[in-house]
Amino acid sequence: MHPRKIALVFGTRPDTIKLAPIILELQKCPRQFSVVTIATAQHRHMLDQVLKTFGIRVDHDLNIMQPKQSLASLTSRAVNALDAVLEKEKPDMVLVQGDTTTTFIGSLAAFYHRIPVGHVEAGLRTDDKLNPFPEEMNRRLTSAIAELHFAPTITAKNALLREGYARESIFVTGNSVIDALKIALQQDHRFSLRMLDRIVSQKKHIVLLTMHRRENWGKPMRGACCAVQRLAREFSGIDVVFPVHLNPEVREVVYPILDNLANVHLIEPLSYVDFAHLMAKSYFVITDSGGIQEEAPSLGKPVLVLRSVTERPEAVKFGTVKLVGLDQNRIYKTAKKLIESRPAYKKMASATNPYGDGKAAQRIVAILKHYFAFTKKLPSDFKIP
């Protein structure tokens, strides 16, 4: 039987991070699979850093990013560019990851060519079409197209079952972000910024902060920044490290409020390896990111999430993540308690990580081997511990 061609479509830093372990695992199986990597480059600079980290070569770089691009213009450029590549390559399956515009458009372009789609990190839901925006609808639309659903958790699987997707098409694999994190932390590492080495060496409590979400731009983000400002002024024993997103909508809010505070460090976005190692050194994390809600619990780091709802409820249920929304007082009081109360901190830090054991990529490749009839059955140790 000839190798099956698997095309993997990615465009942002998060989806590239989560597909990287799967690409590497597929490349170990040249008799069964040939791999085609397609980058829309929805986020150019951040994407290139990840590709270098994992040693991944891009076969088709569509480079569709434009300054201040709208969702509509991004969508139209992506679907036209992907259509041409799929027509040329004619893969046997397209794999997409997560909830980005690249994810949905990659699925749609594959559907137009009657190519089956595998959706990595399928089944995450908030049941609010506008939150997160546009990611919730990207996920739902991708699910409607996908042939195989690689759900990271039982909760995600149950969401897909409730929506009527066939049980035999859904597989619980764990989240490949844990695979990627393990790869990153295994590397011998020195921070690219000397400032970070100095901050870590001081052995103060590092609070890692990230904010970028579209629905939080403007007033909500200002409230979060004001809460962090209060914390920094009250607690000289913490260092807040904030890799600030490149989007001007973010920077125009962040810098006027948080710049010029001695223990708040506004830095440029970090490489994935730098970020992973900084997260491992942090005391806790404040974020509106989705992926960090999965990564930080695997490192025993409490996470305060700057959202009112999350499509990742498992960590909230187990207690390692708390939703604090964008209310300034709530953010401040919850973070203050983690700083002042060791029992409160320990309770969150020791909570269960629900996102798997770092073998999601192995499971996904095993499923693909079974799907394409290279193997008759899945391995006996397939279930997540």
Structure description:
By secondary structure, this protein is an alpha/beta fold. The protein folds into 2 domains: 4-175 and 356-371, Rossmann fold; 193-349, Rossmann fold, CATH 3.40.50. The protein is built from 16 helices and 13 strands. It has a 7-stranded parallel sheet with strand order 3-2-1-4-5-6-7, with helices on both faces. Strands 10-9-8-11-12-13 form a 6-stranded parallel sheet, with helices on both faces. Strand 12, helix 13 and strand 13 (321-323) form a beta-alpha-beta unit. Helix 1 packs parallel to helix 2 and helix 3 (71-89) crosses helix 4. The radius of gyration is 21 Å and the shape is globular. The relative contact order is 0.12.
Give a brief rundown of this model.
The longest helix has 19 residues, at 71-89. The strands form 2 sheets. The protein has a 7-stranded parallel sheet with strand order 3-2-1-4-5-6-7, sandwiched between helices. Strands 10-9-8-11-12-13 form a 6-stranded parallel sheet, sandwiched between helices.
- Runs in which pLDDT lies below 50 for 5 or more consecutive residues are none
Q: What is the CATH topology descriptor of the largest domain? A: Rossmann fold
What is the straight-line distance between the termini? 33 Å
Number of strands: 13
**Beta-strand proportion:** 15-25%
DSSP summary: helix tally: 16
Order of helices and strands: EHEHEHEHEHEHEHHEHEHEHEHEHEHHH
In round numbers, the mean pLDDT is 94
Give me the CATH architecture of the largest domain, please: 3-Layer(aba) Sandwich
Q: Which class do the helix and strand fractions yield?
A: alpha/beta
